[in-house]
Amino acid sequence: MSQRVERVQRLAREVLGEEIGNLKDPRIGFTTITKVRMTPDLREAHVLVSVLGSPEDQDASMAGLKSATPHLRAELGRQIRLKYLPSLVFELDKASESAERIELLLRRIHEENLPS
Q: Where are the domains of the chain?
């Protein structure tokens, strides 16, 4: 991956993270941008988000982000000068859930192997 793509990903993560915090949509709960993956031509950005809460809270936050996409895209264009304004695709980051599940399984294994 080129340094330019990496730099744009980092800047997009910062801009979007800050702007999501400023949104007034009540559906959007505690949402964190975990990663932004840009295509090599910088025309599409896959934005991975972590949402704290129940699956219903996550669905509501994702719906709020989807409706705020035009605003977020415009703000990204204002703060980062690019030839083409990338389209934004929001995806729920499941990595934290996987990490919690692995930790729980390891804890169970450890507890089962403790001498009685």
A: 3-112
Tell me the helix, strand and coil percentages in the chain, rounded to 5: 55, 20, 25
90 close to 65: Cβ distance less than 8 angstroms:
yes
Task: From 40, 29, 45, select the one nearest 5 (Cα to Cα).
Answer: 40
Q: Is the pTM of this model over 0.85?
A: no
Tens digits of residue pLDDT in 37-46: 999 999 999 9
Q: Does 3.40.605.10 match the CATH number of domain 3-112?
A: no
E-only strand ranges, 8-84: 31-38, 44-51
Question: Cα 61 to chain center, whole Å?
Answer: 11
3-state SS assignment for residue 48 = strand
